[in-house]
């Protein structure tokens, strides 16, 4: 039986990396922050206390002995230098965490940027106004202590604490496709009506417009599995940070896992006088 779903967008942080490709003309840059971290218990405030050097992803429960019921559920502070280079001047800066278990508070230069609850969901915070050019101090206060407000409360597994998934510095233009909505790609594909004869869909793009420029455009292109353009929509003079673009595709190729696993690609570009300010490529679209 044919599956009557043509477009589906995964929003989970762990899948995001595989779905969002980086093109040469994409001004968005991800910088992996895996090395240079140290950590210690928050309670260890002695003058001689030192940070243990680690690489992220990391958990302080790595030495847990299987078969025992006790493991550390406490608060730790992670710290590293955050280098902001001259080429990042006039750019926007975001910290993108793929997972911190199970509650995190992020500080830059001793100022709180924000907090996140939940160890298995990605989150993103803007630090443009907190970081300066040169060396900055980045801290993440992490706790896996029991908290009835954070799921899962219990299960047949342990709640290991730490920055247990990769962390990145994200650099964008002043006007960009927003990474702040639950750390999603900022692009949502809605199926309005789909049949073998016709697919009516809406591509919704969430923008973050800080530059307040005039004449911005959002160009959304849909390609088939061979890279052929089958539809394109250009939204002119964009001022609204939520852009919805309708598409009608005649005789769409409906995805079938065994007989015809056809996949589409959706490319969303934010343009300023023809120059790409933001770009998201959503692969593996059914």
UniProtKB/TrEMBL annotation:
Signal peptide residues on this chain, from the entry's feature table: 1-23
InterPro entries assigned to the protein according to its UniProt record, in alphabetical order: Beta-gal/glucu_dom_sf, Galactose-bd-like_sf, GH2_Domain-Containing, Glyco_hydro_2_N, Ig-like_fold, Ig-like_GH2
Native source organism of the sequence: Bacteroides thetaiotaomicron
Keywords: Glycosidase, Hydrolase, Signal
A GO BP entry: carbohydrate metabolic process
Domain of life: Bacteria
Gene3D superfamilies: Galactose-binding domain-like, Immunoglobulins
One MF annotation (Gene Ontology) recorded for this entry: beta-galactosidase activity
Family in the record: Belongs to the glycosyl hydrolase 2 family.
This protein's name: Beta-galactosidase
Spans through the membrane: none
Name of a matching Pfam family: Glyco_hydro_2
Protein EC: 3.2.1.23
Domain Glycosyl hydrolases family 2 sugar binding: 54-171
Glycoside hydrolase family 2 immunoglobulin-like beta-sandwich domain boundaries: 187-276
